[in-house]
Structure formats: C-alpha cells, structure tokens
Specification:
Blueprint (H helix, E strand, L loop, with lengths): L1 H38 L2 H30 L36
Length: 107
Amino acid sequence: MKRVLLVGVGAAIGWYGHTKLSQGRDAAALRAEEALRTSLSPENIGRSIGQGAASILVETTRSFFGTMREQVPALNRAQPAPPVVEYPHRVDPLQGEVTEVTTERSA
C-alpha cells in the first residue's frame, strides 16, 4: 500500500511538473514565432534597410565634408571668419508707387 501511494504521489508530482514545464515551453515557442514573424515582415525589413542606408549616407557625408575641410582652407572652421564690413551710412529702401492694372479688351 505504501509503495502504491508513493508511486501515485510521484506520478502526480511528475505530471504537475511536466505540465508547468510544457506551458513555459509553449509560451517561449509562441514568443519565438512572433519574433520571427515580425522580423520577416516587409515593413520591418524595409525600415531596417532604410535606416541602414540613411546611416551610411550620413557617415559618407560627414567623411566627405571632413576631407573637404582638410583640403580647402576656406572651409576650415579653425580659421577666423572674415570681418563684417559695416557701411558708414544707412541705406533706405526704394520708394515707389503701386498701381492697379486692369485688362480691358476692346472688340
């Protein structure tokens, strides 16, 4: 009788552990399937390709302008900017008169 009870309790504990473990495995499998489905969707593939292309474009542009600053002295930020010329007298805007133009056709 004692062995039958021990085998029954052991089987019950084993069954309970197996169901909990399989539920965890099933949930992990569902999460993996969802992750695979979303990573292979056309929207996500297009977005990742666009982000990659944009980062390549930004890095290429930075490299290009860095090279240009080194080779063209006028673009070098380390040099002081040329002085701003201020005129001694004030320049007034042009004065004018606005007239309305009508188009009349004669027959």
